[in-house]
Fold:
Amino acid sequence: MQVSPSQISLVLCLLSCASSIGARYTPDWASLDSRPLPEWYDEVKFGIFVHWGVFSVPAFGSEWFWWNWKGAHDPEYILFMIKNYPPGFSYAEFAPDFHAQFFDPDEWADIFEASGAKYVVLTSKHHEGFTNWGSPNSWNWNSVDNGPHRDLVGDLGNAIRKRSLHYGLYNSLFEWFNPIYLSDKESGFKTQDYVAKKAMPELITLVNRYKPDLIWSDGDWEAPDTYWNSTEFLAWLYNDSPVKDVVVTNDRWGNGCYCKHGGYFNCADKFTPGQLPNHKWEKCQSVDTKSWGYRRNMKLTELMDLPSIIKDLVYTVALGGNYLLNVGPTADGVIAPVFEERLRGIGVWLKINGEAIYGTKPWRVQAENATVLAWYTSKNTSTVYAIFTSNPMQNTFQLSMPKTSDSTVVTLLGNPEPLKWAPLESKGLIILLPDLPFSPAEAWTLKLDGVA
Structure:
């Protein structure tokens, strides 16, 4: 039976109108965009992204393996299959080898906690359509019926929450080769059978079952938000879902929504604004610069080193963003030691310098070319942090933007002793630096109390 768009809207409207208590959001962007972002998200600043799925089995090229092989017919992927798998081998045949036999959610959670991250976002379903949980709308193409034979979303969520970290879920709206979706696409998205039978029921079940603090939507760009019924879903999410008061969403709810509608803005993968945006945003970045999923053929030169990651984190936070750093586990359920080393290195740096990251706000000036480039963050009205990501190689440091007073105190984070300083003629100050401690991250922070 074909389901009409009006029937879909009616069902979602009934869900979103089930309660009459408190402020209500209506299923339109003007109302939904007026919802204040839950405060926890801006406070935490740093999270871990985890791309894991059937694509982790071939672990070649990227997590877009299936599309590159069967959609784009990329010769590199075709040759890989010819060389390594028998004729007629299908993508679905990779799933039984997604064993996850070494997956220890507590071990993962320990690594994420040690990184200093305050939230974790796991792929519940990527564009391949395989769900990392027992979705009733994805028969035999999910991690409970196939592959690991366990609830990966639930197991990791329990471990994450035991450590008081926030737990978010990535969800791809479309599925590359789902025949119902392809039928809707063939109609020019005039039919919405896929949305009614698969996308929306699955997403609502995901929210009700796992109660994520964050929904990282993706796979939306081929169709407008009216096809996805995004506004109806978000009205239900914000009004009546079990996470209505805490949930955070991004901006990937249909073609034309990026950097315009939703909760915080992603705008694009690895989005790097040139100036302070006027809306809360997030930069998603991957330690492996060539892929979000695990690659067996990755090279060390293609991975971000620790100083590069810290520079990216500092830049993002100074411009008011959150930083979501991705690692791709193996099909066996292992976070590669090189990724673990990066994450633990971030945590070591944040133990000393986290005060300049967590719970901060952008300052009136985000950066200046001082003795070396310095990025600013701030807390309350008179505490400013100047983070520099290269060693000035001298014992004085000059900042021209802070306005000092007789009560100004300057310290180097990790060193409790106040530093000697003197005001410059008009504004700013010159600081006498101690010997800088060794930092594998190659970044240090000056804390300035009592400045404007």
Observations:
- Confidence is low (pLDDT under 50) at residues 16-21.
- The two ends are 66 Å apart (CA to CA).
- DSSP finds 13 helices and 15 strands in the chain.
